[in-house]
Every structure is written in C-alpha cells, then in structure tokens.
Amino acid sequence: MRDNLCDERELEDELKISINELINENNKDISEIKNDILNGVNRYTISNFEIIDNMYATNTIKFIDKMRSMYSRGDELKDFQEVWNNAVDALGNLRKNTIGYLNLLWLVGMGILLEVPKEDMRKVEKCIKRQSTKDFVLQFLLNSYLDCEDEIELCFEKENPYKKVVEIINLSFEDKKKASDRLTKYMNSEWFKGHYDYEWKNAHKEPGYLGFWSFETAAIVKIFGLDDGKLKENNHYPYEFAHYKNEIKFNITKLNIKQEKEEEEQKQYIESNHELEKIIPNKFREKVNSIIEDYNMLEDKEFWKKYELQDIWFEFSEYEQENADKNLLGFIIVNELINYECILQLDYKEDLEDYIDNLKSFWKEEPVKLIRFDLKNDQNYYMYIPKKVNMNNLYEVKILNI
C-alpha cells in the first residue's frame, strides 16, 4: 500500500464493484444502445446519444479513479498504460459531457509520467479544447510535453491552490534550489489544504476513499528535473511515479504568458442604497441592485421562485411567514453573494484558517480587512471589505469585525 489511509479491503471492493463492474456494465449498455440507434429504437425519456455520452463520461472518470486506486494500492506502474489508454478512448467519445477539471489535470499529469506517445496526448488536448477548458496549469503541461511555444493565458479553473504553481514554474527557470524548496512547501502545506472546499479534509474517514495524488505536480518535477527528495514520504505526492521513466528530455527555456490589457471596469452604483457601495465590490453592485429592486417590487412567490429560495425555505409558505415583516433582504443578499465567491460560508465546526485561501478580495490594490456576517444560524459568513470602512449592518444582518 502506498496510501496507508486507505482500507485495503474497501479499496479492493471499490476496484471490483464500483469501478471495474460499472465500466463493464456501461460498455455493454453502450453496445446495446448503439444497436437501438441503428434500429430507430428509443427506450428512455432522454435521447440515446445523451445516454451514451453520460456513460462515456462515467467510464472516463472511473478509469482515472482506477489509476488512483492502483497507485494507492501499490500496483506496478507498468500496468497503468493500458488503463490510461482506456480513459483517453472513453474521453474521445464524449460530445457534450465533461469530466471535471481535476480529472483532466490528473489524466494529463499521469500521461506525462507514463511518457505516452505524443499523438495520444494530442487526443487529450483536442478534448480539452473542445470542452473550452482554459487553465494555466493544464496548458503549461500540454505545451511542455507537446513542444508547443504558444502563449498561455494566466487563468485558472481553480485558483486555490493552482495559482501557486506559477511561483514554482517561474523559480524553476531562475533557481532550481529555490524552486524545489517552494515545491516542498506547496506539497506539504498548500496542495491538499487547497481542496478542503471539495470536502477532502476528512475524506479518508468515509467509505470509498481512493487516495489523492498530485500527479500534475510530479509531472512539473519531471519537466524541470526538480529535487523532490523531501517529498518521498508525502502522502499525496506520487514519488515513485515521478521517477518511473526518464527517456523524454524537456527543453523549456521560458514561460510564455499571454499579457492581457486590463480593461477599465465601469463603475457601478447601488441606486437604492449607495451606502452599500462601501462594502459591495463594484463587480457585484449591479447584482445587488437587482436583488433589492426585486425584493421591493415582486410578489413574494415570484421572488421566491426567481431566486430559487427553496434551497433555504423548502416550502413557499415558510418563506412567506418568515418574510411577513419584510426583514430578510440582508440575509438574501449574503446568500446570493456566496454563489459568486465573494462570501465564504463555513460550518461553525470548520476552521477559518483551513479555508481562508479560498476567499477572494475584489478590491484590487485597496487594503482590506475581514468581516463576518451574523445570520443567527450555525454557519459563518466571511467577506473582505476596505480597511477604512466601518459599517455595523447590512440591512438586518449584523457585521462583525474579525
């Protein structure tokens, strides 16, 4: 076992039942549905093509899960190539579905570690482009492996922790020792923690835990020849995989980042309450303005439906009763801004320190401070506001300084 947090028996069951058997069942169903298409038969409420697409997406993810499981279990690395090929074949059959950013990242990372034929990696690149996935780390890995010098946009599917990878890459061109030190810090204290918002923190305590491995980081080590000796015992760094093959030589001489001119943001206003402009970033003022207008103008039921408040008040009658005094506007604004990563919501049991890197400041260069909204429930709601601002309330919601 490479991951001692995995339960060996549970891992065997996952591989046998949840992965291998499901893949085989899906392949059988795909063949049957393809025959249905030829015969003009549709046995389901959704189209045959959509069902097949769903099954190919599931199979792709399951093949990637299989490789994660195999690595955690301690399988020989020579057995990974066939599974990687199967994952790429399934991915290539997708038309509309996607498999998620991390799965793409792991697939590309493992492909580099396996030193797969470049034409096979180009199949993956084609699928990524078709899905319109734009991400710096993914594109850097692909460009490095496929000898492409195209400019890379400095954008991220998941900023935390992957924006930190830029530091490692930049240092790798300047000072390998400093790059290796930054790599060690990244893997020891930032990579895994950067996925707590994906509920990884206690995932090893749940059934079906497969292990989490930063294959993409090992690929970066391979590309630059960094010293990863201090990560040999790291529970999320695939050290053996990083040193599996060494036939391909990389010749990366510079990082070609696309420089984009920052467009001047048009200033927005909250016409119904200009005071809120002190704490609501410009980017979200139009949204907040609409919420305020709708709250004051729409009938309760129409507002409840438009803002999908059934996630908070399951029945309209519950919302209607609680909103009888029209005193929920601050509560609703806070909950809406969570969806835009402007506010970080945590359960009272969760430590702010574990998640603070996921909270963005939208105030550019302006000094900020952290505040908490008190919604009188068992959740905590955090946001950055300008340091110079002092406000006690967002409508009925109290604002507390941290």
UniProtKB/TrEMBL annotation:
Pfam families given in the database record: PoNi_C, PoNi_N
Residue ranges annotated for the PoNi C-terminal domain, each copy included: 134-240
Superkingdom classification of source: Bacteria
UniProt-recorded name of the protein: DUF1911 domain-containing protein
Originating organism: Clostridium butyricum
InterPro entries: PA2201-like_C, PoNi_C, PoNi_N
Positions of the PoNi N-terminal domain: 2-124
